[in-house]
Amino acid sequence: MAEPEEPANDDMSSNVDMASTGNVASTVNMATNYLSTRKGMTMAGEILLCLCSIIGKTVPINVGCNLNVPIVQLVFATAMLSVFTKGLDKTSFEVHWLFCDLIRVVTGSVMLLITSAQCFIVIAGAAPSVLAGEVFGLLAGGLFGYDAFLVFSMIKSKHVNN
User: Fold this and answer.
1) pTM of the predicted model as reported, rounded to 2 decimal places
2) What tens digit of pLDDT does each residue of 13-27 get?
3) CA–CA separation, 109 vs 143, rounded Å?
4) Could you tell me what percentage of the chain is helix, strand and coil, using 3-state DSSP and rounding each to the nearest 5?
5) Residue 52 CB: number of other CB atoms within 10 A?
């Protein structure tokens, strides 16, 4: 019985492994660098607070709180974070990414504040986890408002510089 041949260990396969490792390392490095900025920390906080709001709202059953807003804002914040982390805002000029981000944070702030305050008032005697979810929603709405201020400041400074 013939033994199976071992695959040839040529330099080509090791170069591919090194290139993929280098890409992963550079991506992680870019993400770490962006998350250390004020805008990166704000976006990471938005994602974390939306996630906490979603968890707090889904623990009790049949409460009637609006769960769509934090889920949509979580998805949009993650997408915009990946755009800014990868530097697509500096290379892709078909879309004005700062205005997209401004629209995202303004609508997110208003919608999170309205839905969380409404649910907070209506379900004041409900389970403590619902109240915690609504408090996280209100905090996320405030953080989205702060992010709107940051984005507006960036747009204004770019407009003055041009």
Assistant:
1) 0.77
2) 444 454 456 677 777
3) 8
4) 80, 0, 20
5) 18
